[in-house]
Amino acid sequence: MKRLYLLRHAKAGWAMPGIRDFDRPLDEVGHADAEATGMAMAAAGYVPDLTLCSNARRARETLEGIAGNADIGRVLFFDQLYTEDATGYLALIREHGSFGSLLVIGHNPMMEDLATAVAGDGEQEARDALASGFPTSGLAVVRFDDGLDEATTGAGYLEAFVTPAAG
Fold first, then answer.
1. Are the CB atoms for 158 and 140 separated by under 8 Å?
2. Which of 22, 45, 89, 101 is the most buried (most CB within 10 A)?
3. Would you give the distance in Å from CA 53 to the centre of its chain?
4. Per residue in 5-49, pLDDT tens?
């Protein structure tokens, strides 16, 4: 059994004049939510073998907040997690799926699209929460019977959907 942890970056501030969207930092709420998500991951025993993180500043800062509170395994950074769609995310997951369980820190709408696509079934409470949207610092926990290098749409089971509001 392998787990795919899909985490939307924490809340970022609006872009200031002269700052690219790619370079937007987390705001105060975002920093606190990233730390809380890390604590929730540690408490639940969610430990990825490898983390794939967008190179965007808000994703890297989310990673820092989580890493201060939870084990995140080895980390690789990818510009594709800023530029690709959900299909591109899934291709990257498959490419690194032989490492075991993966944490992916990326952006919406890709996270929501991917979580919805790969979770063919799941806990009703988690499915209802995901159906309400994928907020910043939202974490979808999707279990696969086979390795993530063979992950396909509909093959996963949504175990949990953790949000800052749900704590």
1. yes
2. 89
3. 8
4. 999 999 998 878 888 999 999 999 999 999 999 999 999 999 999
Q: Which amino acid is at 39?
A: M
Asked which of 79-93, 132-146, 153-167 is least confident by mean pLDDT, the reply is 153-167
Higher pLDDT, 13 or 66: 66
Q: In what order do the strands lie in the sheet with 50-54?
A: 74-78, 50-54, 102-106, 2-8, 139-144, 156-162, 119-122
Burial (Cβ within 10 Å: 0-12, 13-18, ≥19) of residue 20: exposed
Contact (CB, 8 A) for 86 and 114: yes
In degrees, to the nearest 5, what angle opens at C-alpha 46 toward C-alphas 120 and 24?
A: 85
Spell out the residues 6+ positions from residue 14 whose beta carbon is closer than 8 angstroms to its own.
Answer: 24
| Nearest CA among 144, 148, 120, 127 for reference residue 51 | 148
